[in-house]
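Moderator note: this is an archived Q&A kept for reference. The question asked for a predicted structure of one protein chain; the sequence and the answer are reproduced below.
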Amino acid sequence: AMKINQDVVLRGKKVTLVPYTPAHVPRYHEWMQSEELQRLTASEPLSLEQEYEMQRSWRDDADKCTFIVLDSERWPEQSEENSMVGDVNLFLTNAEDPTVGEIEIMIAEPNCRGRGFGKEATLLMMAYGVRKLGITKFEAKIGQENEASICMFKKLHFKEVAVNSIFQEVTLRLDVSDQERQWLLEQTNHVEEKSYAELKQPAGVLDT
């Protein structure tokens, strides 16, 4: 089951990935009121209650893995809610082939875009998928107008494989050869993996 990542923190240079918890929902819900984000993520606005439901399903579903993206400069000095910049998701969409992962990245905070946050968050998630989930093929489906995102995935060696003019989206794909795997692990060799529960414990609590 995808609860595999519920105690995982992946700390990179620019971003830190943490599990999506109920504490993140209000801020996430606020983001998703933005018409621009709804368009870019092809999603409908949900009520706060529905967003909590969604978070629970994310946590419990066996075919989804999600992290909230935090700004490494802000967290842990500032609260997680104040450090949130977006999210990154991996779906196992192919029942016949569990080695295929569909990846999604959203940098919701406008002032955090174009700063390499999305790229690092995507690399962290991909390396995690390869190392821990046995993923060997990645797919990304992106709205045709979202040029920044398409361009970023191409920089990460994805190739455009299909265009769906009805949904106006582009499908990009990356097969993780030994060479790609090596590259991915080199790109993420600075990443520290930590326990979320331990990081959330204030100092001194463990002594009691």
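Archived answer notes: The CA atoms of residues 42 and 76 lie 31 Å apart.
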